């Protein structure tokens, strides 16, 4: 049929955008559910089972960014756009270089180039070597390659049967780390790997630990979180029936209470920060921590890990958040950090 101006109407292309999405291992189904709740139908293909998937969303990229940044997800750790897709192999890499060289908005900019490989990638060398090769190939852009405050991020994913790439602003990735994987080196004297969770929370949520004077650490043993607080100049009351690490004995500014947290009473407004990392049922943890919140000053910070022992974590997390909200806690972020295993981290401020 012809329209009045004599033109044959074209069927409009459905709007869609594609992304490689990453969650902690085993949590991809919950990241997919988060996307479904925000964007409706999501077509997805697993790239790494339980962890990385390619998602097609029926909305414009701008809308994806806006909705995600206004509703920061808990389980979706990282997202990278797919604007270029080709078959696996070296000729496709050449075509990717040509494509990137054609993007005039990248000229002379600071760019972070993130390269990841799938399990059986056609690229046999390391991702770092692919990054170096690609940087050389796109020299014509006159760009500076740096992970520090880049204007743009180029994300490349070399899988066994395809090559994917996309360019976006850093905040659109949800994490400035390649694939959202933030890694720290374990210090020789580090008491527990659990400490990484609090280091990551500090960086990810921008928590000003240096500004706190008095802290309560519930479920503190062996003492990774306690040592983190002490190193930030916080005087710590550490509560745990289990033993704290030898190195913390007689540490100035540390009071150790070898007790069950349920047995304790504290004064009003005794602490500026409360942290809790107990391997406990989430509801019991929330009940116990809320029972101690009178000791947190208004404006004080709480960081707690919530174990995901439940089959429906999203519903359970909502319930736990509601328990805290009913006790004058404003949720700043709920997120499964890279260093969280079967748990998430809640960052809250008391009002
Ligand atoms: C995962 S560990 C904490 C690790 C610690 N954040 C670190 O960085 O070293 C959990 C701790 O919670 C403690 N815990 C469990 N129930 C508790 C309770 N009712 N009161 C105090 N501590 C408890 C356990 O004894 C255990 O040491």
UniProtKB/TrEMBL annotation:
Keyword Transferase annotated: yes
Which Gene Ontology BP terms does the record give?
Answer: methylation
| Pfam families documented for this protein | FtsJ
- Domain annotation Ribosomal RNA methyltransferase FtsJ: ranges: 192-280
Q: What is this protein called?
A: SAM-dependent methyltransferase
Cross-referenced InterPro entries: RNA_MeTrfase_FtsJ_dom (IPR002877), SAM-dependent_MTases_sf (IPR029063)
List the source organism.
Paenibacillus wynnii
Q: Which CDD domains match?
A: AdoMet_MTases (cd02440)
Q: Does the keyword RNA-binding apply?
A: no
PANTHER family according to UniProt: RIBOSOMAL RNA LARGE SUBUNIT METHYLTRANSFERASE M, RIBOSOMAL RNA METHYLTRANSFERASE FTSJ DOMAIN-CONTAINING PROTEIN
Keywords of this protein's UniProt record, alphabetized?
Answer: Methyltransferase, Transferase
UniProt xrefs under SUPFAM superfamilies = S-adenosyl-L-methionine-dependent methyltransferases (SSF53335)
**GO MF:** methyltransferase activity
Lineage, please? Bacteria, Bacillati, Bacillota, Bacilli, Bacillales
């Amino acid at each position: 049929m012809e329209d009045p101006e004599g033109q044959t109407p074209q069927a409009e292309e459905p709007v869609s955008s594609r992304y490689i999405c990453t969650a902690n291992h085993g949590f991809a189904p919950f990241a997919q559910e988060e996307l479904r709740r925000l964007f409706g139908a999501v077509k997805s293909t697993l790239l790494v089972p339980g962890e990385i998937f390619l998602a097609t969303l029926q909305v414009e990229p701008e809308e994806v960014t806006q909705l995600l940044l206004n509703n920061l997800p808990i389980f979706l750790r990282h997202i990278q756009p797919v604007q270029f897709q080709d078959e696996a192999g070296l000729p496709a890499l050449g075509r990717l270089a040509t494509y990137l060289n054609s993007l005039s908005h990248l000229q002379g900019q600071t760019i972070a180039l993130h390269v990841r490989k799938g399990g059986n990638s056609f690229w046999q060398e390391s991702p770092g070597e692919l990054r170096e090769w690609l940087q050389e190939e796109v020299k014509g852009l006159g760009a500076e390659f740096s992970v520090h405050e880049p204007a743009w991020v180029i994300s490349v994913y070399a899988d066994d049967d395809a090559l994917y790439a996309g360019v976006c602003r850093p905040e659109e990735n949800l994490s400035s780390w390649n694939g959202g994987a933030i890694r720290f080196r374990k210090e020789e004297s580090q008491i527990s790997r659990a400490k990484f969770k609090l280091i990551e929370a500090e960086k990810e949520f921008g928590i000003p630990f240096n500004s706190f004077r008095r802290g309560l650490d519930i479920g503190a043993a062996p003492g990774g979180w306690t040592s983190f607080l002490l190193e930030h100049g916080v005087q710590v009351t550490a509560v745990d029936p289990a033993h704290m690490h030898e190195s913390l004995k007689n540490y100035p500014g540390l009071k150790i209470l070898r007790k069950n947290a349920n047995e304790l009473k504290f004064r009003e407004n005794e602490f500026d920060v409360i942290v809790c990392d107990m391997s406990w049922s989430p509801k019991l943890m929330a009940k116990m921590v809320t029972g101690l919140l009178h000791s947190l000053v208004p404006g004080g910070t709480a960081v707690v890990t919530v174990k995901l022992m439940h089959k429906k974590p999203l519903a359970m997390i909502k319930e736990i958040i509601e328990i805290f909200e009913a006790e004058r806690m404003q949720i700043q972020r709920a997120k499964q950090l890279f260093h969280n295993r079967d748990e998430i981290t809640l960052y809250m401020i008391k009002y």
